[in-house]
């Protein structure tokens, strides 16, 4: 082997090592970003569920106590009217809250959205580099 061939082989090996190192670093960064997305999504979900459960419990308990109070207060005069009215109010409130909960779920950001955006940027950059 000549001296020039050895230098070319060493340069090629160094280039391959640099590419492998770059790909490994890129993969590691994307996996860390994916892990962060998963953690944020999980924390958001747990927080939402705990808050919703506590709020639902408090509201239900308060509504039942309010209904009992109103019924006892008006027991002698309009008990059936009050029972019917409170039932209608509770059903309407339940439907409205269900609609709001569905809207909130639809408005939540997509899972892995940040990772997908970063991968799209990487792909665009690689496509740009190919055309040069």
- Low-confidence runs (pLDDT<50, min 5 residues)? none
Structural class based on helices, strands and sheet pairing:
mainly alpha
Q: How many β-strand stretches?
A: 0
Termini, distance in Å? 34 Å
Strand content: under 5%
The helix-strand sequence is HHH
Give average pLDDT, whole number. Answer: 80
List keywords for this structure.
3 helices, 0% strand, 132 residues, mainly alpha
Give a quick rundown of the structure.
With 132 residues, this protein is an all-alpha fold. 90% of the residues lie in helices and 0% in strands.
Written description of the protein model:
This protein is mostly helical and 132 residues long. The chain has 3 helices and no strands. Helix 1 (3-73) packs antiparallel against helix 3. The longest helix has 71 residues, at 3-73. The two termini are 34 Å apart. The model has no long low-confidence stretch (mean pLDDT 80).
